[in-house]
Amino acid sequence: MDELTVFGTIVLVVAGGLLLALTATKLSERFPVPEPALFLLLAAIASDVFPELSERLSIREVERIGVVALIVILFNGGTLVGWRRFRVAAVPIFSLGVLGTFATAAVIAVAAHFLFDFSWTIAGILGAALAPTDPAVMFSVLGHKEIRGRAGTILEGESGVNDPVGIALMIGMIELAQEADASFWVVVEEFSVEMSIGLLAGVLGAVAMRPLLRYSLPTPGLYPLRTLAAAGVIYGAASAAHGSGFLAVFVAGVALGDADVPLRESIERFHTSLASLAEVVVFVALGLTVDLRDILTSTRLLEGLALALILALIVRPLTVGMLLLPVRMRRNERLFVIWSGLRGAVPILLAAFALLAAVEDAQRVYDIVFVVVAFSVIVQGSSIPFAARRLGIPMRASS
Fold first, then answer.
1. Closest by alpha carbon to 276, among 80, 60, 88, 6?
2. Which of 5, 13, 123, 390 could be bridged to 112 by S-S, CB 3.0 to 4.6 A?
3. How many CB atoms lie within 10 A of CB 28?
4. CA nearest 250: which of 94, 64, 72?
């Protein structure tokens, strides 16, 4: 009975916190503060006030929560983009998603090495963690509106591509840090294998799942669960083959996004809601594993703020601005894409990878990522509605 009491208390705290968090989302309708920022800060404060909360959540559990959440987020993102929208902006999406990720990671690594005396390998790990973007955070501050035109497609597609790229890059960097005699070729090899297998698994998975998703089921509630199971199978198959499961689920989502399946709208609403919940859970998990007092009383707060400013004001404008030069876009759309490179759930997951691998300065990297993500969602994210209005970015009501 003691076990039931203890577990009941955990359920009470978790469910009560989630209910409070969902209720707090109404605040975003009045104040331009992204919902993830509220969850992140409240969880961080709660872990300091009630230390037992963070003691019950290990970094291994945070990593697993992040993986499951990212499967849901990437598959949903892929289906929302769809093949028809994706192919119209395929060139800038791949350019920003691949070249932009490497360029961002490299510049952040240089800054971290020379400004904060990180070794080149650990600076590279920090750069890989901070390279991926997360438009899901940005869209949360727009309320019930979606960006129309190429800008929205590019932002969604960029995030779907650069998330798996950043993860593969991080895995390679961690291997480089753990092997004394390893060269940077380890990173290139790991990246190439993961991307190739992930892309192939995503395409084959979509081909295999397309006819399966057309079969009728006994009740409407089973249809969203079937697509969720399909995403899990595709991720698992790609990962078991040593490929990028994250790239596989995004590619499969894009390929299946325009498929003629029963109850399509209900399935999309379910997955969009589930992706939003997954985003919330990841931010809460990050907040619970961070010690605010350590951050506020050390140099990591200033280091994180400095990197956040460098990332938003120098790195993103330079890398994205140069890569978008050959793309035919209106000036206002180009500026909006440059400013909207917000950091979110993926840097959390990547920083957790570094902690689990016990690489040098892993805790320092984890804390800095927290500060950068917090700055990105609170400060930069809060400016998105204003930037959209000033730049005249077309919006439409989301269903």
1. 80
2. 123
3. 18
4. 72
